[in-house]
Amino acid sequence: MSEFFAMGGYAAFVWPCYAASILVLGVMIMQSVAAHARARKEIKRLEGESRDAGA
Asked: CA-CA distance, 51 to 34, in Å (whole number)?
């Protein structure tokens, strides 16, 4: 098992790359969720304005 974590002597390069990838993907997911929430809020606001203008 320790051979796996050593990555054939390249662990100092491999594991930071994994960590950076996970970090970037995590940030992208959080930004996507936040953008989705903003878009839903804006749609609800626009739908409310549309109903008010039509009444």
From this structure: 26
CB proximity list for 5: less than 8 A, separation 6 or greater: 11
C-beta atoms surrounding 15 within 10 Å: 12
As a whole number of angstroms, the distance between CA 34 and CA 52 comes to 27
Q: What is the pLDDT of residues 6-53, one digit of tens each?
A: 999 999 999 999 999 999 999 999 999 999 999 999 999 999 998 888
Q: Which helix (H) or strand (E) holds 2?
A: helix 2-6
Are 14 and 7 in contact, with CB atoms under 8 Å apart? yes
What do you get for the CA distance between the two ends of the chain, in Å? 69
